[in-house]
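REVIEWER CHECKLIST
Item 1: Sequence provided? yes
Item 2: Single chain? yes
Item 3: Sequence as submitted:
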Amino acid sequence: MPRAGEDWPRIKEIFEAVADLAPAERTAFWEQQSAGDESVRREVESLLAADAQADDFIGSLTKAIPRHVLEKLAEEPFVARRFGAYRTEREIGRGGLGTVYLARRADDSYQKVVAIKLLRRGLDTEDILHRFRNERQILARLEHPNIARLIDGGTSEDGLPYFVMEYVEGEPLNAYCETRNLTIDERLKLFRTVCWAVTYAHQHLVIHRDLKPSNILVTGDGEVKLLDFGIAKLLGADEEAAFRTMTEQRVMTPDYASPEQMRGEAMTTASDVYSLGVVLYELLTGAKPYRLTNRSPKELESAIADQIPERPSTVVASNQQSEISHQKFLRGDLDNIVLKAMRKEPARRYASVGQFSEDIRRHLEGLPVIACKDTFSYRARKFVRRHKAGVAAAALVLLALLGGLVTTTWQTRIARQERDHARLAQRQAERMDDFLQSLLRSADPAKMGKDVRVVQVLDAASKSMDHDLAAEPEVLAQAHESISFTYGQLGQVQSSEEHIRAALEIRRRIHSPDDPATLKTEMWLAGAFCNRAEWQAAEPLLRHVLAVRSRQNPPDLYWLARTNEVLGSVLSYTNRPEEGLIVLQKALADLRALRGEGDTDYIHVLVTLGLARMTAGQLEQAEVDQRRAIELSDQRAPHGFYAIEPQLGLVSCLLRQQRLPEAEQAVERLETDSLQLEGSESLEYSLARLLRACVDFEQADYAKVIDEVRHPLEVVATAFPTQRGGIVQARGLLGLALTRTGRPAEGGPFLRAALAEGPNIDRQPLEFTFGNPETALGECLTTQGRYAEAEPLLLTGYNDLHARLGEKHPMSVAAAHRLHQMYLAWDKPTEAARFALQNSPPANPSR
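Item 4: Structure as written out by the authors:
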């Protein structure tokens, strides 16, 4: 047996000597250096084979793919195929795992162009399938204007997974800047948008791990879109453990990979900071950061690990061909910002992408940056550069009067204030990054099990954060907000509200009531109240935010419009529809002036206005608003809920008007679009199915209702518990349908559960089906002969409808008719006659 451990120094020495030799030269070397020692030679040859294999994998996105397979894949001709509702038109790109096609909807519902990514045939191994599905899962979690959206997904006829993405027609970031000859400041501002998108992904516990210009597209109107999360790391998945066991599989794009990524070490958000640093280096200089001779994988890996890049200003000065070489390149700040992001040691880089972006902002505004050494002379230079005219005039006067003493004292004080502010911002960013990193570390499957869920990680962090961050209240407030948002996304309403309350308490303690950070947190809390139908609690917060933003000079019209939108909804839900309409119309006008009618925010407010018109009884105008919103949405690429929301409003409006054939036609498109855009387990599709059940309920097809409503009820109640109105609607429909098909004992529990939630919801949507939970449960009890229990419920339900809708409304008539029938069955003719005299039986059999 060879004693590899004892012979290791010699094995290592020989390996390093022959690694770069040609095969013939290696043979000569063996004869001179290792003759007679076959065990050492076998060990060295084994290392050489492993080294060659590892080199083959650098930059590759697959594991051990035979060359003949790749060649076959590269030659595979394009054939138009159908994937769900889409048909491919041409191939637009290939990556290590998949081929990307341009596709268009194949039905006549509406026109839409998408990109479809399909796993390439021959690569459907278990781990690659897992990674492909992981990318789909990651994209489904990310909803950001600068991240390409996932629209749909599935499996092709031949068993290969695919997903449908938003099609982005644009140029890679660097090409966009070059073709338009953008200035340095314009490039930096565009780059900060990229940082914003990456920061959002990090806040949702996703590390991209393949940031490069070709994955960052810019559309013709300057909108940035981040693409390709194919090798991203998702917190809570057990994939990372598998990656660590496959040390030979280093998944990356080498030119933009961090040193730790090249070495196959654990990845953190610092790795994305490094990759963004390389992207910015290339964006500013037009060149790669490392000087290479043959660009072999081994040379590139060595350069990334050991070579210090040239300062960007030096590269620009020496590059006579560069489009930006003639521009003024501020030495110092930008050099230091870029090189700090590209530090070899992760701990010496920026603590987060947000901090990286903030330093760029400070540079753009002429403020001191944390990447530069904090000295008085540096602070003074920055101050003078920002206030040239004022400093020059003051210097002339003060030199004459005081010999410069006062000037020096004043500048020193300002410099200290800016230094302290920068240090505070840096410390807060570092502590926030530490907090996020602790979340990543706490998801260790070895400690929490391989099926660890995000909510478990959040629960664990919630228990320790107040203690761990007690000395830094600003960071603690930010942490509470981040956790509140994530809890809300997971449907954990109570936990979400607790954290946003804690954040607001801290904000009010350390800031003024008019501080932008306080206002933002108040808006979040108002939103939490609206989710719980606590309209009266939300209104004072919204009015305070509105008053403060109105006093700003100049006012932020966008945020005024968004605040007015929420306030208008609150007014509508608290029986002040006319006031709500005025506020919503102002919000709509402001958004039209700011962003135009094609903007998603404008479409959303138009839908909200239509719903408020329904509350005010303006059904014809409400229908006009919803149809206009659908028209505007069809003119742009569908954007998730913003494409479905107006269709939900239209079906509701048609149901209120009892135009059932039109409602049935509208709900067919709603079901198709929500299924294609969001999937079968989405909230949108579940609401569409629920409205389908409403249409069938109005047509007295109760057997259909029972079949249709069970699954959406389960999905919404489990995954979207904040949708209380939809849950009550579904339970009420199911309970009454069971009752009217002779199964009241089965329907009773659903109706009691609906009644328990009844006080906490907006009852208006129930007006086009069963009125309210009280009358529904009363009918169920009457059917079972339990008149004493049914009477108070039916009376309460009738009084509620009578007060809200008036005596002659069909729902009020139906509620009175239930009382009449109950009293007749109970043998109380006097009471029965009282209700029979006031009302006639309802025309609609479902009522």
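Item 5: Key structural point noted by reviewer: The mean pLDDT is 77.
Item 6: Recommendation: ____
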